[in-house]
Write a structure and sequence with these properties.
Length: 133
């Protein structure tokens, strides 16, 4: 059973997926730091000293040892910016390393003069409109 599991890991893309998840997690931590520590502070200064992570709408104030209930839309803005940066970086990395296969040449065939549907070279009737071709 262990040999079969080892074969599964090595023959399928499970190993590549595991490496991708680990690298993606590390990239996510780096990008979150980039957004929270480098991008957002200057934006906050430009907007009058606003710290986005503190922006929230308080629904119910804290009472005693019960925490407040709030909608933390500043944290959401940070998360959206981090997502956009991560998506952009992943897109750029994929453009660098994943090359598209060249397009296959179109298959030879006949075009129906009536409906313009492509048909096989040896066809005598159109497969779409059944006209003789």
């Amino acid at each position: 059973m262990i040999g079969e599991f080892k074969a599964f890991l090595l023959k399928t893309n499970a190993l590549a997926l595991a490496v991708g998840v680990i690298i993606g997690t590390a990239l996510g931590a780096v990008v979150n730091s980039l957004v929270n520590d480098i991008i957002m502070p200057p934006i906050g200064v430009l907007l009058g000293g606003v710290d986005f992570s503190d922006l929230k709408i308080v629904l119910k104030a804290a009472v005693g040892d019960k925490p407040e209930a709030a909608i933390a839309y500043g944290a959401f803005i940070n998360a959206v910016i981090a997502f956009v940066v991560i998506a952009f970086i992943v897109w750029r990395i994929s453009k660098l390393f994943l090359k598209e296969a060249p397009a296959a040449p179109p298959a030879p065939g006949k075009t129906c003069p009536f409906c313009r549907e492509a048909n096989a070279v040896d066809a005598s009737k159109c497969r779409a409109c059944t006209s003789s071709i």
